[in-house]
Write a structure and sequence with these properties.
It is a single chain. This protein has a six-stranded mixed beta sheet. The longest helix is centred in the N-terminal third of the chain and has 18 residues, at about 5-20. The mean pLDDT is about 90. It is about 30% helix and about 45% strand. It has about 120 residues and is of the alpha+beta class.
């Protein structure tokens, strides 16, 4: 991987980890800094989310300070210039899921464009 690709993947990982931070999630303004205006998510529940609906969930304390999301197997790849795909495993208080997100570089910085979660047994 080139230095530029490594920096792009690291920027996406940094953004992903910020979105999992309970303090960031509690602030709609901070979440909006990380979500693309065209953001879409297919959640582990099977529900489709957009920016407005996800702000309701994130600001509602979906991740607690006492039990942060445990992340493992984080990996990223540059799909094209300015586009990074991340995959990882997340455990949120026993709710375990494989997660996948697409980040794109905008004038405002790296923003999550798409996210999907698939529950595991």
């Amino acid at each position: 991987m080139t230095d530029e690709s490594e920096r792009a993947v690291q920027a996406a990982i940094d953004g992903e980890m910020r979105l999992l931070d309970p303090e960031v999630r509690a602030s709609p303004a901070r979440v909006l800094e990380l979500l693309d205006p065209e953001f879409i998510e297919f959640g582990a529940s099977g529900r489709r989310w957009d920016v407005e609906s996800i702000l309701t969930v994130t600001s509602g304390g979906s991740v607690s300070l006492e039990s942060p999301v445990k992340v493992s197997e984080m990996a990223g790849v540059v799909l094209a210039p300015g586009i990074v795909h991340l995959t990882y495993f997340a455990d949120n208080q026993g709710r375990r899921a494989w997660r996948s997100s697409v980040w794109r570089l905008t004038e405002a910085g790296w923003r999550m464009y798409f996210h999907q979660a698939t529950l595991t047994g």
